[in-house]
Amino acid sequence: MKATYRIDGMTCQGCARSVTRAIERAVPTLKASVDHVHGTAAVEGEGDEAAIRRAVETAGFVFKGQAAPAGS
Description:
The chain is of the alpha+beta class. It is 33% helix and 33% strand. The longest helix is centred in the first third of the chain and has 14 residues, at 13-26.
């Protein structure tokens, strides 16, 4: 699985690190790359969206679902 999700509430690099850790701890088979400026989390590996949502929300941020592909 490779997907990018929208995440609201991140204001700094520390927020991005918190989301990255939350996702990777909740779903160890995923690698996350989080960008607080664009409000996105790109994930790659085996996992499901529900687990990612729970991890993001437990960390205190708002999971907004899958981001639209570039150019759409």
